From TrEMBL, chain A:
Name this protein carries in UniProt: XdhC family protein
Transmembrane stretches, start-end: none
Pfam families referenced in this protein's UniProt entry, alphabetically: XdhC_C
Every XdhC Rossmann domain range: 77-217
Gene3D superfamilies on file: NAD(P)-binding Rossmann-like Domain
TrEMBL record, chain B:
Protein name: XdhC family protein
InterPro entries from the UniProt entry: MoCofactor_Util/Proc, XdhC_CoxI
Coiled-coil ranges per UniProt: none
Pfam families hit by this protein: XdhC_CoxI
Domain XdhC- CoxI: 20-87
Length: 234, 112
């Protein structure tokens, strides 16, 4: 392995950015491909699949054998709102492999009794996100219904290109939210990325069912990363 | 279950390999590039080895690491990468085979 390649790969991994290490198993030459880099042909298709699935594998392309080692940051879910839905969402998401953090400045809601074994911040999103910035391997679900708490986090999630951004509330509530986000400087194309009403349409009624719908939508967003933009280019 | 979303720098093989390199050590990196059947460590897993035989990480559940370290020291000397295969079908199975019944292919290369 090339020492510079190793150094670069570790930098990407430390910064929670996805990278695929491509090694030619014939001559040992290697290089780093970052998400969004264009690689042509069969090898390019295999690399795109490695980014999407996170699976490392050997591939035959252009008469050679390459090993693709996919280094994807661990996806995580930040939930704004220590509400009933979050109580169901936190354990479900963790089981599915998405570590959860819950942020809610209302100390009556954000209590360890209501959220045992969950990373819980009884603080304003402004303060938490300054310390632990959002990134493209983070999903954000805003479920407080309170613009004072949700709006800042939603704008931050759009700016950080979170792979999933969902917001609880009816279409009417969301229409008002869109106006506020536009006033905060969000672009219309950014706002179109918000899933609202939140969750896959499975007819969810109870808080736990809504949590299932949100988690399913998060997983779908994660596993289809990059597919939308590809469609847009074509 | 490992819950951290950040690298565990003290145990991450590739971070350790970079540190060894900065300390002026000769290093080999072993990578699981293919598995068949039941394999203890997924494709992409690393074992990193220095010229004295110190190692971190894993390519199996401890079954074949000894053999990989020996090969890695040769790779550090020669600079030539090697592809190793381990499985119960090997005649050496009793020494370095995988008791889980799987088969793995490990690529061993020198750093630099």
């Amino acid at each position: 392995m090339d020492p510079y390649v190793l150094k670069t790969l570790n930098e990407e991994r430390r910064a929670r950015r996805a990278a695929v290490l491509v090694t030619d198993l014939g001559d040992g030459r290697d290089r780093i491909v970052r998400e969004g880099d264009r690689v042509a042909g069969e090898l390019g298709a295999a690399i795109a699949s490695a980014f999407r699935t996170g699976n490392s594998r050997s591939v035959e392309a252009e008469g050679r054998t390459f090993f693709l080692n996919a280094h994807l940051p661990r996806p995580r879910l930040v939930v704004i709102g220590a509400v009933h839905i979050s109580q169901a969402l936190a354990p479900m998401a963790r089981i599915a492999g998405y570590p959860v953090e819950i942020v809610d400045p209302r100390t009556a809601f954000a209590t360890p009794e209501r959220f045992p074994d969950v990373a819980l911040h009884a603080e304003w999103p402004e303060d938490v996100l300054k310390r632990e910035p959002l990134d493209s391997y983070t999903a954000l679900a805003a479920v407080t219904h309170d613009p004072k708490i949700d709006d800042f986090a939603l704008k931050a999630a759009l700016d950080a290109r979170c792979f999933y951004v969902g917001a609880l509330g009816s279409r009417k509530t969301h229409a008002k939210r869109v106006e506020r986000l536009l006033a905060m400087g969000a672009g219309a194309d950014q706002i179109a990325r918000i899933h609202a009403p939140i969750g896959l349409d499975i007819g969810a009624a109870s808080p736990a069912e809504i949590a299932v719908a949100v988690l399913a939508q998060t997983i779908h967003a994660f596993r289809s990363r990059g597919l939308e933009s590809k469609g847009a280019v074509a | 279950m490992d819950e951290s979303i950040y690298l565990d720098e003290a145990r991450d093989p590739l971070i350790i390999a970079e540190g060894w390199m900065k300390d002026g050590k000769d290093v080999a990196i072993a990578t699981v590039v293919e598995t068949w059947g039941s394999a203890p460590r997924p494709v992409g897993s690393h074992l990193v080895i220095d010229a004295e035989g110190n190692f971190h990480g894993s390519v199996s559940g401890g079954c074949v690491e000894g053999a990989v370290v020996t090969e890695a020291i040769d790779v550090i000397d020669s600079g030539k990468a090697r592809m190793l295969e381990f499985g119960v079908a090997d005649e050496t199975a009793w020494q370095v085979g995988l008791s889980c019944g799987g088969r793995i292919k490990v690529y061993v290369e020198r750093l630099g």
